[in-house]
Recover the amino acids of this structure.
């Protein structure tokens, strides 16, 4: 009887959905090297949007990502692992560092793509 209960508990635990962490930032961010304060007009810019555990990219090679893990490295600095699927790639991963410079600026240091500087959109 005890073995049946343990087996049932194991099956229940394995079938439960896993939830990824939410990104430490949210909303739309436009690619910009400006250091000016405040939100900017992003209508003609590459836009990265963070919404819970999903991230979209208006001009990247992959349109949508899902967060797999976020590890704090320092105040305002995080190591991020995202998953993505395209027509040719299933369950691909991308690693990068996300740094919140201030309330209006963030930086994504992509391992292969270099530094991407972003400013909050209006």
């Amino acid at each position: 009887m005890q073995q049946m209960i343990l087996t049932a508990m194991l099956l229940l635990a394995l079938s439960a959905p896993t939830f990824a962490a939410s990104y430490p930032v949210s909303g739309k961010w436009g690619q910009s090297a400006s250091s000016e304060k405040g939100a900017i007009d992003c209508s003609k810019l590459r836009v990265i949007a963070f919404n819970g555990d999903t991230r979209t990219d208006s001009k990247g090679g992959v349109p949508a990502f899902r967060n797999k893990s976020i590890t704090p490295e320092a105040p305002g600095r995080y190591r991020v692992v995202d998953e993505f699927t395209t027509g040719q790639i299933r369950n691909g991963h991308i690693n990068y560092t996300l740094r919140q410079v201030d309330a209006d600026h963030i930086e994504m240091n992509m391992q292969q793509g270099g530094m991407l500087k972003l400013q909050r959109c209006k």
